[in-house]
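Troubleshooting entry. The earlier prediction with iron/sulfur cluster gave an output that would not parse, so I re-checked the input for stray whitespace and re-submitted. Clean input:
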Amino acid sequence: MPVKSYTLSKSRYTRGLKCHKSLWLYTHKSELLDDEDTGTTARFNEGHRVGELAQELFPGGVMILEDKLDFDKQIRQTAEAMKTAKVIYEATFCHDGVLVMADIMRKGRNGWELYEVKGSGSQKDVYRHDIAVQYYVISGSGVKISKACLVHLNCDYVRKGAIDVKELFTTVNVTADAKEKQAEVKKEIARQKKMLADNDKEPKIDIGPHCSKPYDCDFEGHCWKHIPDNSVFDLAGNGVKKFDLYRKGIVHLKDIPLEMVKGQQKSQLEAFLGKKTIVKTPELKEFLDSLWYPLCFLDFETFMCAIPPYDELKPFQQVPFQYSLHMMKRAGGKLYHREFLAQPNVDPRKELIDSLLDDIPEDACILAYNKSFELGRLKELAEHFPKKKKRIQKIIDATIDLISPFKMRHLYSWKQQGSHSIKAVLPAFVKGMSYEGMEIGDGGAAMEAYHEMCAIADGPKALSKKRKDLLEYCCQDTLAMVKLLEVIQGKTA
Ligand code: SF4
């Protein structure tokens, strides 16, 4: 079958499994796709590196070179390679109007083994569908598949020296599952092709939990545009189900009958309706009484990589490369600022922890916002540097969570829209201070900026701009904490 007639690929098929409308839009109205987020290219490049590394599990294979303009050529090359090669990378097949490229195929005694590589740390249902459609297309092309496997990263692997690919990857045999799915794959392909054949008929599928499961859809900007600000989807916490409200035609927060909600959702709604701020003075006082001086405000920025770049790291382990520390020696005293930002492409952990231990006074109380993140990193540093463990443990023991009063709604403004993230709390209480307009506006962007810093090849000017943006962002995080503590103090004065 000439490839010209293909309508689906494995990624389009899995997109269609999530939502037919998403597949239709992708095929007929791709201009409606959301803008790519900043991490998309980095994730793509990292996925590519994982794929290349996994090929070392089966070395010496024949690479079918990607030629987007000529898939027929790739299919012909694959057929030719299969006559002699033992291993093929990116083997290309087309059957029943579906085009697939198999990451790795190896010739076994009883047929070809199929290996699908994923740069993820676990098995996911969607991967099994991905393999099942490949199984369908390849066996439909007349190739006997003896085994179908998923190859993913082993998150327990700890790098020691050169990467050990056999330890880095976990291989799961999913042959039985792929076979079991064949009848359903055939039916689903037919359904998707029928649906796509109508160029003018966008499927009538409303928004639902499927929009974010198993991953966020990239047409949300299009499908969710009728949802206003302050909608039922801003309701925080468990309780009444947001899609239940939506399906009843209740879309705006103001339209939710108070008797339908309870607990935190009710207090959020009451605060919103009355444009109120909730202040629980005794609880706030108790929080303030738990603090002491010197008082430090600490925030880490971290990066992570699928393939651990340094020794004693696991795949996707968060590595702190930056911190900001504001500090007051006594109540109402002068505010000091300390910071650290690693040089690119060096293991930052030793320099960072040495600097931090120098900067934090021995007997200080430390505030972090959502402390489990900072404590997780400190515990890992304590394990990595046993000689510093005692001192790091002291910091861990002295850390108090500034998110608590906001999370427990001891202080809550209707402007927070149900969120207790610092990005929502700060502008609700501190006029003129927000993350709007900053070059780096969240931890994900900071991680991205660090990766970019490591990849910068065009001179010191670009590097120093990235450093400036990162320092500005992290400093803002701890300064925001200082201001939020002032707000709590002000409410209890
Ligand atoms: S946003 Fe939701 S409804 Fe729209 S295409 Fe995506 S998954 Fe389907």
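This one parsed fine. Residues 19, 21-22, 25, 205, 207, 210-211, 217, 219-220, 223 surround iron/sulfur cluster (CB under 6 Å).
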